[in-house]
Each structure stands twice: as C-alpha cells, then as structure tokens.
Amino acid sequence: METGQIANGAERPRQACEPPSGPDGLAGQGLRDRKKAATSMALHRAAMRLAIAHGLSEVTVEAIADEANVSRRTFSNYFANKEDALLYEDRVRVRRLLDEARSRPADESAWQVLRQVAASRYADWDELDPRWVAQTRLIRQHPSLRAQQMAVHANTERDLAEEISRRTADPMAARLMVAAFLAAQRIAVETWLEGQGARPLAEVMEHALDLVGRRFE
Fold first, then answer.
1. Distance of CA 62 to CAs 15, 117, 188, Å?
2. Structure pTM?
3. What is the pLDDT of residue 215?
C-alpha cells in the first residue's frame, strides 16, 4: 500500500453492501444478478465517497473494499481498478439508454426513438443531484477517469448506432445521427450544470435536441 494513502475505512463504521436505490435496471433480474448489481453499486458508491472525501490519488482498492465491507478479492471480481469502480454508474445509465432504445415501437423513426429516450431519461431531473454533480466534477478533474469515460461513450455510440441503423437505410446516417444526439446530450448537461440547475434539465435537453434535430426530422 502506498505511503499516505487511506489504509481502510476505520474512521467510520463499516457498511454492508446495500442494494442501489432508484431505477438501476434491476427489475426482472434473478436473485443472483440482483446481488451482483447491488455489490457493484455498493463498491461504486464506496469509491465515490472516498474519492470525494480524500481525493482520487489517496484512494486504494483496499480502502474501497473495506468501505464496502467486502474483501479485496471480491473487489477484483467486479472491477479492474478504482477508476473502473468509479465509472460503474455511468455504465448502468448507458445500458438503460440502450435498453430503452431497443424497446421503442417499431414504427417510430430513428430520430423519434432518440428523442423519446432522452425525454424518458431526463423528465424528472428538475434539481441537481449532489452525488451525480460530485461524480461529474471528479471525472472532469482527473484525466484517467476522463479517458475511461470516453471509452465507455465510444462503445455507447457504436452500440446505439447499430440499433438506430435498423430504422434507417443508411448506416452512415445512423452513426452521424447518434453522434449528434450524444454531443447534444453532453452539451445540454454541461450547460445545465454551469447554470446550477436554474432551468429543468429536460427543458435544456429539448432545446439542444431541437437545434441538432432539424436535419434528422
């Protein structure tokens, strides 16, 4: 263990792995899958607490495992490193986005699917979630996290474009559409954060998608 890094979570009571609150895509899963998802989320949240409290460079895998009340071996069964654990909720949101796109009615156009997915995702985001804001700021501050997040987003763009291409005859058009959609989402979220949530995120998102969607509607 590196000198100066957090050895364990002894300063606070150890917490058992708790199931994630909110819509984390657990509905319809078996007990084993739900337990795995709960452990993943507990490790993610433990990593977030430690990184926010002490700084990313001071956090070790051992400290995260201790904070989540699991073994180092258990951590390694779920995540490759601390950055991987910190980005877990990002990947959950990505899976949810893809699942929502795949579940849209067959008669919807490609752009309608993307608009409806965005509307569903951001309908209730009227207030800033301190935990999510903290995560977003943490990622912005650390190149290692940004690099891994970019890889996640690149995979998202590829998978979503593959799904959207089923609704358009031009695969390149699908890729361009998805790239524009994801860029609009990113800029809308950044604008909303910079404005401290003064306007509902759904409203900011709708405006961004209106601007880029004229070519695709």
1. 15, 38, 37
2. 0.73
3. 81
